[in-house]
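Hi everyone,

Forwarding the result from last night's run.
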Amino acid sequence: MIPTVAVSRYVTPLREGGSLPGIVEAEDLGTYVCKFRGAGQGERVLVAEVVVGELARRLDIPTPRLVALDLDREIARYEADEEVQDLLTASLGLNLGVDFLPGAFGYDGERPPAAEAARILWLDAFTANVDRSWRNPNLLCWHGRIWAIDHGACLYFHHGWGGGVGDPERFAAQPWSVEDHVLGFAVGAVSAVDDELRARVDDALIDEVVAEVPDAWLTPVPGAEDAAAVRSAYASFLRARLGSRQWLPQRGAA
């Protein structure tokens, strides 16, 4: 599992979007953007963040380090803002911590090398990310490189598991549109990185990244009644996707 550290202080909210993430300090002396399990999007967004973020790291795509942040009731007790206090109280236990990158700034449109952009495009297509557009690039510029962040909109299939785990093959065949992607200029280079990245995402790597998700976020569903079975379902969907090429974005689609 991703490392677990205790939150020592809630610093300030980041009032962006509807989830109200916050800056926190932790007992390892790190500063993190905390994404709360009690936010409206639910714990499956945190699962997607971990699975796809850890895939990115293993494919050499720059992305911030992730931890599980253990939030104690005492942290919420002294928060003056009622909205934040309610969120903290609803999020006791393990939340997601994204390493805070001091001095990073939002993507400004300067094009990275096509091969670098193509790796991000490939990952987004593989995991069906629908949230890296000009409206919301989810990219940071830090130390001269582009960093991919905020992967909660990936792996959309799990939002349909209310009635039970669906069919991995349906996800495998689902096409992905590059039309609104902020790095769509590099679509012609995706085929050049496909073989390399596909070869690196083997069964062992899929099992490894899915194992990074805390059990507490793996809510049982019909057909997967415990955390191990839910974990196995995620692995099955990713393996099925890997066995297809129907999702690869095509030149001329951007």
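The chain has two domains: 4-99, 106-242.

Cheers,
N.
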